[in-house]
Write a structure and sequence with these properties.
By secondary structure, the protein is of the alpha+beta class. The protein folds into 3 domains: 5-130, Muramoyl-pentapeptide Carboxypeptidase, domain 2; 146-190, no CATH class; 192-236, no CATH class. It has 9 helices and 4 strands; from the N terminus they run H-E-H-E-H-E-E-H-H-H-H-H-H. Strands 1-2-4-3 form a 4-stranded antiparallel beta sheet, with helices on one face. It is elongated.
């Protein structure tokens, strides 16, 4: 059984490392259980619950190259706590973390839930891979350095706008851009009091803009503000 993440496709390896780092930050003791599988290893697992004792753990035959593990695009994880290696609640937490950085989580499958499993397929099906299609050419980070961009990403990490570096560097994850814009906007608004007042004025919550900019408001103004905000939020 192979647990070496260096046997994974470089992009998948990066995502596996990012997931482990995120788990560490969340206080989760997670390890890699398996990465690349040979035909023999995959067939051995396929036989479990069929010609060998035990529960069925996979529907993918090794002889037909039906597992993404065989294509170096998948890995399994476990909790490094004896007796609780596959605690369902922990695996759900890790599953959500994996999905947040672009990994596909086996626990989200309706037909055959595989909670320790993660994969990144580049949109390629098993049929595509067997027909000879390959993942896009990968350029290692060390060969594609944008120092200015990396410094910018690090700054946003310091400001807690970005959580996982690998999700944005060396290449950004497009699908999470909307969330990024929201976090940036909230940070900028937090730093600009006049902008905050302008937004409240645009929403019809604050009318006397100059009074609020100069902070000349009184207790009745604050009460009115809170009431108007409550009414506005109820409408949303």
């Amino acid at each position: 059984m192979c647990r070496d993440i260096n046997e994974l496709h470089p992009k998948v390896k990066e995502l596996a490392e990012a997931l482990l780092e995120l788990c560490k930050r969340e206080g989760l003791n997670i390890k890699i259980g398996e990465t690349y599988r040979t035909v023999e290893r995959q067939d051995y697992l396929y036989e479990q619950g069929r010609t060998r004792p035990g529960n069925i753990v996979t529907n993918a035959r090794g002889s037909s190259m039906s597992s993404y593990h065989q294509w170096r695009l998948a890995f399994d994880i476990y909790q490094n706590i004896k007796g609780a290696e596959y605690d369902s609640n922990i695996l759900k937490r890790v599953g959500k973390l994996g999905q947040s950085i672009g990994l596909e989580w086996g626990g989200s499958w309706s037909s055959f839930s595989d909670t320790p499993h993660f994969q990144y397929t580049f949109g390629l099906s098993i049929k595509d891979l067997n027909l000879g299609k390959k993942p896009p050419e990968y350029i290692p980070t060390v060969e594609k350095i944008d120092q200015e961009y990396e410094k910018a990403v690090n700054t946003l990490i310091e400001k807690q706008i970005i959580n996982i570096k690998n999700a944005w560097y060396p290449q950004p994850t497009v699908r999470y851009t909307a969330q990024l814009v929201e976090k940036i906007s909230l940070e900028l608004i937090k730093l600009d009091y006049d902008l905050q007042i302008k937004i409240l004025n645009n929403k019809g919550i604050v009318i006397e803009v100059e009074k609020w900019k100069k902070q000349e408001y009184k207790e009745e103004d604050i009460k009115a503000l809170i009431k108007k905000v409550a009414v506005y939020l109820k409408k949303q």
